[in-house]
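A note from the maintainers: we've had questions about how concatenated examples are separated. There is no special marker in the raw files; a new sequence line simply starts the next protein. For clarity in this README we add a label.
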Amino acid sequence: MHRYQLEHAIRAACSIIRRDQVIIVGSQSILGSLHEDELPDQATMSTEVDILPIDDDPQTVLDLSDELSAVAGEWSDFDQTHGFFLDGVDDTTAKLPDGWRERLVVVSNENTRKVGTGEQFTGLCLDKEDLCVAKLLAYREKDQAFVGALLQQGIVDRDLILERLLNVQELWPIEVGRALGWLRTGT
């Protein structure tokens, strides 16, 4: 995936759910921090953009997430036309470290304006180390490859990932234990 596709995903998601901001929580949120040319191939392989709608009501978030997936999800006309799809998610999709909302990376530029109206949309992408924490807590092979590639190229800070993992150890002791073990031996 490319940065311009992330920007398109932000425009599309905001238009579909009639909101001016969304949060990108999946692997493509790395494109909020870095251009695809600065990233290893493993970091941009996914064609799925995980979109978390913003609302105080959890049911509204679920409803908006369902709407996103129905309109622009996998195998939709949107997916067939653009070669990537939007996956609506909720607050329970990713396990994230304390303070993650304060570290979101803003993507808001000419490319995230709605064509025709000029309405400005904003994507809020996970900080790259917060993204790695979420990936390691998910503990899937593809997530380990993603984090491993970023670590090998020095794109993310191992010590910061470790610190953020330790801060959530009480919440998810098993997941953090696996992630710590992987960090010590897997990369």
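[label: protein 2]
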Amino acid sequence: MSLSVDGPAPKEHARIGLIALATDLNSEADLRRMLPSDVDLYCNRVRNANPISLAAQRLIEQEIPRAGCDLLPGLDLDVMVFGCTSATIAMGEAKTLALLAQSHPSRYQTTPVTASLAALAHLGARRISILTPYRADVNLALGEYYESRGLEVINVSGLDMDDDYAMTALSPELIVAAGLRAMAPEAEALFISCTALRSSLAVERLEAALGRPVVTSNQAIIWHALNLMNHPATSAPGRIFNMPSQRQEA
């Protein structure tokens, strides 16, 4: 008895495509951990230089078309995600979103920058503190961009790092301590940048200690992707998942 298959298998789950950095040890597992069971994540990677620099990250735009094309060829995706906050800043948010849309058929596209801006707006937070693992030049570019999008960035606190592997090695306990130091008294929310950081594991402790919402790059990606698909909220950490959502276009 032979079996024949005509075309792709029926789609039962939503599909998210992730383009991650070759050196990112964290984002793929972190995103899967926060996703509902009926949403699947498929990942491909782009070559990147490690240690990180803005100049090197601008070159990643040459890799995105290849990585997107090779991600489940012939199948449409619900959301395409680029998984690096600082590289999105280096390449430009609009350019990154356009590259995602061109690289693979998908209904929506998002980046950690796009997602975090949407999450902060949904929380009603305009005055923010930012914690990053980055060095001063990346922090400056990131702070200026968030300011250009209408936020009041009170401070950007960096850990002076440029190695993806070292960033992932930072414990959630260290991130909690750094977040407590970084949060300005007048800030309405704390944004923790970088998909390589295991900061989603620190969100609940930080929110309990600070009494204010905390948004991280990976947590924001999950919230935004589900919101774009009009998918019910998941049990991921953070106040953002406890607030009623209205679908927002990327």
